[in-house]
Amino acid sequence: MSQTAGAEDPKAEQKLLSAMLSAGFIEPKKARRWLDAPELAQAHRDALLEGLRRSASPDMALPSLVRVLEKSPQLISEVNKGADAEALYRVLGASQALGDFFIRRPEHAEVLTGQGTFNQLKEFPASLLAETDDEQLMPIAPLDTLYRAEILKAIGADPKAGQPIATMTGKDAYIALRATYRRFLAELAAQDLMDPDPVGFMPTVGRYLADLAAAAIEGALAIARAEVASTTSTPEEVAAVQLAVIGMGKCGARELNYISDVDVVYAVGHTPLSELPENAEKLTDNDLARIGTELVQALSKAIMAPAPEPALWEVDANLRPEGKDGALVRTIESYATYYKRWAENWEFQALLKARPIAGSAELGAQWARAMSNFVWESASREGFVESVQAMRARVTDNIPAAEVDRQIKLGPGGLRDVEFTVQLLQLVHGRTEPSVRTKTTTDSLIALAKSSFIGRNDAQQFLLDYKKLRTLEHRIQLLYLRRTHLMPSKENEQRILARSYMAPSQCGSYTAEQMLKDWQKIKRSVRTLHERLFFRPLLAAVAHLSKDDVALSEESARDRLAALGYKDPKGAIRHIQALTKGIQRSAEIQRTLMPVLLGWFAQCVDPDAGLLGFRRISESLGSTPWYLRMLRDSTAAAERLCMILASSRFITDLIEVEPEAIAWLDRDSDLRPKDAEQLWAEAEAQIQRHSDSAQAMRRIRLIRRRETLRIAMGEASQVLELDQIMRGLSNIDQVVVNAALTIAQRDMFNEGGIEQLTDVVVIAMGRQGGQEIVYGSDADVMYVHVPREGADDREAQKQAIDLITVMTQLLKHATKPALRAERVLEIDADLRPEGRSGPMVRSLESYREYYERWADTWEFQALLRARPFAGSTDVQDAFIKLINNFRYPKDFALSQVIEIRRMKARVENERLPRGADRTRQLKLGRGGLSDVEWIVQLIQLCDAYKEPTLQTTSTLGALHAAHEAEIVSADDAAALQSAWKLATKIRAGNILRTGRASDTLSSAGADLEAIARWCGYGPGKARDLEEDYLRITRRARTVYERLFFDADLLSEE
Amino acid sequence: MDRQQEFVLRTIEERDVRFVRLWFTDVVGTLKSVALAPAEVEAAFLEGLGFDGSSIEGLSRIYESDMLLQPDPSTFQILPWRGTEEPTSRMYCDILTPDGEPSASDTRGVLKRTLQKASGMGFTCYTSPEIEFYLLKSNKVGPAGVPEPVDFGGYFDHTPGGVVQDFRRRAVSTLEEVGISVEFSHHETGPGQNEIDLRHADALQTADNIQTFRTVVKEVAISHGIYATFMPKPFTEHAGSGMHTHFSLFEGDTNAFFEAGSEYQLSKTARHFIAGVLKHAPEFTSVTNQYINSYKRLWGGGEAPSYLSWGHNNRSALVRVPLYKPNKMQSARIEYRGIDSAANPYLAYAVILAAGLKGIEEEYPLSPAESEDIAAMTSSERRALGYSALPSSLDEAIRITEDSEFMAETLGEQVFEQFLRNKRDDWKEYRAQVTPYELHKDLGIL
Prior knowledge:
Number of domains of chain B: 2
Largest interface: A-B, 17 and 20 residues
CATH architecture of the domain at 126-143 and 196-379 in chain A: 2-Layer Sandwich
Oligomer: heterodimer
Radius of gyration of chain A: 41 Å
CATH architecture of the largest domain in chain B: 2-Layer Sandwich
Structural class of chain B: alpha+beta
CATH class of the largest domain in chain B: Alpha Beta
Mean pLDDT of chain B: 87
Largest sheet of chain A: 5 strands, mixed
CATH class of the domain at 126-143 and 196-379 in chain A: Alpha Beta
Order of helices and strands of chain B: HEEHEEEEHEHEEEHEEEHHEEEHHHHH
Radius of gyration of chain B: 22 Å
Shape of chain A: elongated
Mean pLDDT of chain A: 88
Shape of chain B: globular
Helix content of chain A: 55-70%
Number of helices of chain B: 12
Strand content of chain A: 5-15%
Low-confidence stretches of chain A: 1-6
Distance between the termini of chain B: 70 Å
CATH topology of the largest domain in chain B: Creatine Kinase, Chain A, domain 2
Number of strands of chain A: 12
Strand content of chain B: 15-25%
């Protein structure tokens, strides 16, 4: 029909379509035909379009309107009121489900004229008992609401009766109950949609929705009484049972959603004999439980069972003691026993929101009184701290990735964030402060601010954010009365949402784009909530901030710190105090920063140590501008700093004396080791500038201390790989030894005026030779000298010893002023021929003779890692050339192989600490460093002559070469390499964590946890590291045993 | 304090229990016990009971001797054979480190971990064992140098009203008193040999029950003046004592091994499970057959299953699929016949289940079923059909286990290490023995 009309007057038609567009239709062409419906014959088209302009979705409102008019033609006068008929146009435009309801139940259509009971409602009605628990002014019995009275009347029950009983049962009763419920729901929705300030109105809506749900349950109970009394039990028996329905969750708190599960638990008790007919008998406890259960089942059916008027919502009793396995109904004594003895911490959190909502008022009040203290005693229960932390983790927990961006409730920055944070604060502080024992999230925010637990401005901000999010959620649910918390993904649906979100007069002035933008802003703001509500007030406890900020009492601050995992909250408060007091710029910046820092520390193994270290450093840096700037502007650097301070004793000690190092955290390039040339240039400059040897040496040792710190910080910041760390540390030591030798020579020959008789060089051995050291390793060395032409050998030897003595003293003597926190470089020359009983230094010729005539096989093995270290390069080269013949022998004899094997077996047996667990010894234990190194060295001795790529001092380098040369399979090489690397990493972690070297994998919980973090495992994964280490080294051991003892390494090709 | 713990304390009070025994198991399955006075039980629940782990062989390393016993209240039980005069009770314990974390050395923990893995895959594991044992006159060998069975006449002799009848009646009723359901009890083929079958229950409970069962049987035997032994093969000429166990996996209330209409009504899951068990059987035999003596049973002929094969009702196969009874899909199950009665039930069940689960996870293919008696084939025949054998000695079994990543993963690195250490010591000591066999056979001629 519309086509024909359009064909007659295309111009008028075009005009109509554009009028529809401007009224807010999205698809005017599709909706157009409804305008010609016979039901709208009496409608003034202008008024109609004017009214539809107020609808969130005119496209949805128009068809609903036509179908409603079909059943309720009297509404046509309302239609013609245009924009003044707000209820009609707003409701039909925002809710398809309510439109369908009026089509289904035209007898309630008057709601659409704006008539109704709304104005008679009380937002804070009295309870059925004239008492409240005075502290929270929260009625402790079901409320005496209009909804309750009306619903009971609708099913023929007497609202004034102690135990109202319906006069109807079965489907008829269900229909009456549900239709009445929906009628009031529609009235409330109309008020909500018409309110000029929907966000401000949200808490009121939540209260009424909870009251309406409570009334529906009361009605369902009245029906249940009638049904049970006429089927399985007698009316007398039913009268003898008191049943109280306790609302939990949002219903208990009076902040319900439009559609949501209603969480409840049920209590039963005997009706006092005085209220029963004279001859009545007291029920047995079994009968009480049986009838109570029957009532509850019938009640649920009245709400949820299929009937011509659809089910309302899920009545969910799973929060009851023992959950799904527990009895549906319990006596109050049974509840008390349960909560006293068996309940878990989270169950007390659930009790936070509990309140009697229906059924026997006296019994409900008794229940509320009996339970009220449990929740607040819970904070002193064992495991509370853990459960708070678990709860905290849950706040930041993830949800299904597909929905995360659309979640209004669960996503980061969602409603759940606000609710959890508020509950957490209530549990921590409600114990000592009754005024924060409020139920709704909105009330609690206000109460927490009033009692100075959180900042007022913050509270206001989050209150508004929370109400906005809830309003969005309400509008989304209204559309189809479905339980959903997802932002619609289609643009059209978003547009409808934006229109229904705003007050009627602003309908259409708010675009979907704007709404999404605002929503993102709220999410961002809520995401900082935890820090602002939880950590920031901690600061306020000790420092006076701006007027707005709260003054958290010290005791409350202690509670909160302990809940975060600080083991010494008193100490922590002292540190915070010291850091933030005063009026300098530094204190001001610390004050802004502290809340965030406290959170970072709390994520580490040792938050107390972190805070203490931070205090010491801040005190030594004072108001140094770059430090403050870094803290303020560079979040990444500040976070790194906190992590380091709360995890590493070694680094903290060094940073304390070298606080400038903190500046490196800002730039990754500053955390990389300097290369050897750079370091040497710096050392050389110091030598030239300072003619006083002690002063020159002191500055060079300072370089070592500083560069060691740089590498440790680089490791802590995960900038460096293991080989960079090892090589870097080894380069530093080389530069220092080289400098000491240079200075010693200058002292003796240039300034001492002694004639130089010989050239001394230092050769690195052991792990230093392989450039495989960790923090605090000794330097293994040997000394070689070559007397100059014409010098007396004996004199030259003596001079060489003198020179070495001067050099080692330069390295280890105390400096003036002292170098705090320095770890002196220990020089160890025990690997020289004849060990400690041999001469400290030998001439090149003496070495030649020794190696040709006397040396044991193990000494050739030790030479494999000999590397030029310091001194004349000519002499170094000559020495290397000499030893190459021995360490890479042309013919390595089977007898020598056997000698090495025996030696290893002996070392293993003798050097391990007595009673030590072989599986946890990093160096000499099963599959540890020494196993890997010996097999690599045995391969080198056997094959390096033929296979020059094996001629390297590096263990991993030689292993790699052995694999390339097909001496070791890829799997075997990988097994050995990963064991070696992990053991090395753990050794480094040991010293970083405690500042002391240790070659054992700790089995103590906290230490293991710390080491695991150093090795890159996440929180709580200590046992994984242990299991991994044991597995990896077991495999390495298997490979080692096979290769070291069985493989025929001497075979010719 | 949770509800179960509360219940235990109340029962102790009400029944006037005088002693509470805390039971736990070392690495080879020996039951260990610490007795507590009732007043100490509450503290044991809250803090655990410290004990010196090093004093118990196999359980702890020498240098880390402090461990905690954490009683599991759900296993609380009054011990009926201790009489009603001064009631005694027991609870099984989990073993914790001083930090309160599960100890990696606890074999009960190993089974728990495996069951957790199963539950992560959506399975509940049920087991039901058939436990064989011998009743002897005493725990000493007789004058002939061999043990003396109680009914000397041999298995064909009916012994009316004999001590064995009494023993069985008492044993079964005592077991029922401690809540262990007995399915079946009968005289086995050897003289003095008995078999008692336990009703199926979830694997952890079955393992606990086996430990209790052994204690009950030994206690009842003592009270009859005889001795019960679970030694795998006490007699050269008679059958050994096995512990054939039926395994089934459930997904919720559905038997995951059952599939109507397929071969032997076996589901794909069951076939992969069997394949996993067969593939890893040589690796876990050191656990299911952990004593020197175990291998005398495996290789002593008779019905002992020594070859890696499976069959439908084939009593020579290592894995047997019992006859399917129509309309009893819930009872679909497979039977592993390798375990002997002296195994540590926690470890034995852990390794078999883990092997089956691995088969399911990695979808191992299953070889065809065998219906012939494999032991009766010639070795070439077996070779042609591809049947390899289980290890022939503890030594061989240890060596195969040592190289098994599967075993290290299932037992955890620490139990793996401790178990092997224990078994190597056992083998070393045995190897040094001069046995009656050698003396008897060789002394006269050499």
